[in-house]
């Protein structure tokens, strides 16, 4: 966990958060590989991109489709992913994927199903 935390901290400064002052970095562990993302804000705030979704996009670009674990770090944390990110993470990780929420004081571990109890994905009959 310490190695992942070092990676998160090393990439936090790459977040682009001039409007909110709320930088976030995410690391997705998928099929034995790691993928990073940072939040990228925009003056038209709805066009901003969350760190978690950017990490998932990098994962998909690399041809991976199954999330095992997600790490999210913010200096204001530990903070959970927003609702939209929870659903995107659920698409590739399901209820059992681990979500590790990091902050300056430490971290907390949850299952995605705890954070999004009624998430849904392709081919799923019941949540």
Describe the structure.
The chain has 127 residues and is α+β, with helices and mostly antiparallel strands. It has a single domain, classed as 3-Layer(aba) Sandwich (Cytidine Deaminase, domain 2). Helix content is 28%, strand content 24%. The protein contains four helices and five strands. The chain has helices at 2-11, 51-61, 83-93, 112-115, and strands at residues 25-30, 33-38, 67-73, 98-103, 106-111. A five-stranded mixed sheet has the order 2-1-3-4-5. Strand 3 (67-73), helix 3 (83-93) and strand 4 (98-103) form a beta-alpha-beta unit. The longest helix is centred in the middle third of the chain and has 11 residues, at 51-61. The termini are far apart. The model has no long low-confidence stretch (mean pLDDT 94).
- Structural class, by secondary structure, is alpha+beta
Name the shape in a single word. globular
Number of domains: 1
- Overall average residue pLDDT: 94
**Strand proportion:** 15-25%
What is the makeup of the main sheet? 5 strands, mixed
The gyration radius over C-alpha positions equals 14 Å
Q: Architecture, according to CATH?
A: 3-Layer(aba) Sandwich
Q: Give the class-level CATH name.
A: Alpha Beta
Major beta sheet, strand line-up = 2-1-3-4-5
SSE order: HEEHEHEEH
Q: Number of helix segments?
A: 4
Low-confidence stretches: none
> Under CATH, the topology is which?
Cytidine Deaminase, domain 2
Tell me the layout of helices and strands.
Layout: H1 2-11, E1 25-30, E2 33-38, H2 51-61, E3 67-73, H3 83-93, E4 98-103, E5 106-111, H4 112-115
Task: Sum this structure up briefly.
With 127 residues, the protein is of the alpha+beta class. It has helices at 2-11, 51-61, 83-93, 112-115, and strands at 25-30, 33-38, 67-73, 98-103, 106-111. Helices cover 28% and strands 24% of the residues.
